[in-house]
Amino acid sequence: QVQLVESGGGLVQAGGSLRLSCAASGRTFMGWFRQAPGKEREFVAAIRWSTGSTYYADSVKGRFTISRDGAKNTVYLQMNSLKPEDTAVYYCATGPTYYGGSLRGAGAYDYWGQGTQVTVSS
After folding, report:
1. 86 in helix, strand or coil?
2. Is the pLDDT assigned to residue 7 strictly greater than 90?
3. How close are the terminal C-alpha atoms of the chain, in Å?
4. Residue 74 to residue 25: CA distance in whole angstroms
5. 3-class secondary structure, 121
6. Which of 27, 18, 121 is nearest to 73 (CA)?
């Protein structure tokens, strides 16, 4: 069983920054999703562990950065220039080590963290 431990959410004013962290070991890719009240869960960003290849939703490109620290088995989501519409519960996720398809869909992931709330005030 893979356990994902998230941290770093909170309340921030528009234009501010937050960094989310998610610890997990032995994975080949990890992603971040978010879900706002009344909306479906949506893809935010993902990273392939071995190559460092990154993928972003258009809505966060240029503002958010996903990265990983191999020594700490941790993936980060640096969120800058936050907007009120970024308010959501953010989840980190990972999937089978053999998976080589697109990382943008929730179907690629079978392990999810508990979620961390990010609230951006205007």
Report:
1. helix
2. yes
3. 40
4. 8
5. strand
6. 27
- How many helices and strands, by DSSP H and E, does the chain display? 0, 11
Q: Tell me the three state secondary structure of residue 84.
A: helix
Task: Say how far residue 67 (Cα) sits from the centre of its chain.
Answer: 10
Considering only CA atoms, which of 28, 1, 32 is closest in space to residue 99? 28
20 φ/ψ angles, rounded to the nearest 5 degrees = -95, 150
The helix (run of H) or strand (run of E) holding residue 54 is strand 54-56
pLDDT digits (tens, 9 = 90+) for 59-114: 999 999 999 998 898 999 999 999 999 999 999 999 888 888 899 999 999 999 99
Which residues make Cβ contacts (< 8 Å) with residue 29, sequence separation at least 6? 46, 47, 48, 49, 94, 95, 99, 103, 108
Cα-Cα-Cα-Cα dihedral sign, residues 68, 16, 104, 54: negative
Six token digits for residue 33 = 């999703």
What pLDDT is attached to residue 70? 87
| Alpha-helix residue ranges (DSSP H) falling in the chain | none
Closest to 57 (Cα-Cα) out of 35, 79, 42, 47: 42
